[in-house]
Amino acid sequence: MSLRVRLPVPVSVLLGLASLACRHSAAEGRAGSPPQPHIVLILADDIGYGDLGSYGATRVRTPHLDRLATEGLRFTDAHSPSSMCSPTRYALLTGNYAWRGPLKRGVLSGVAPLCIPPGRPTLASVLRQAGYRTACVGKWHLGLGEGETDYNREIRPGPLDLGFDYFYGVPATGDRVPCVYVENRKVVGRDAKDPIQVSYREPVGAEPTGKDRPDLLTMKPSAGHNQTIVEGISRIGFMAGGQAARWKDADMADTLAQRAVRFIARNRRRPFFLHFASHDIHVPRVPHARFRNTSGCGIRGDVIQQLDASVGTLLGALDRWKLTDNTLVLFSSDNGGVLDDGYQDGAVADLNGHLCNGSLRGFKGGLYEGGHRVPLLARWPGRIRPGVTDHLACLVDLPATLAAAAGREFPADAGLDSLNLLPTLLGQATRSPRDTLVMHAGNGSLGVRRGHWKLIPPGQGPTARREPQLFHLGEDLAEKDDRAGRDPARVQELTVLLAQIRARGGE
Question: 445-507 — its CATH code?
Answer without folding.
Answer: 3.30.1120.10
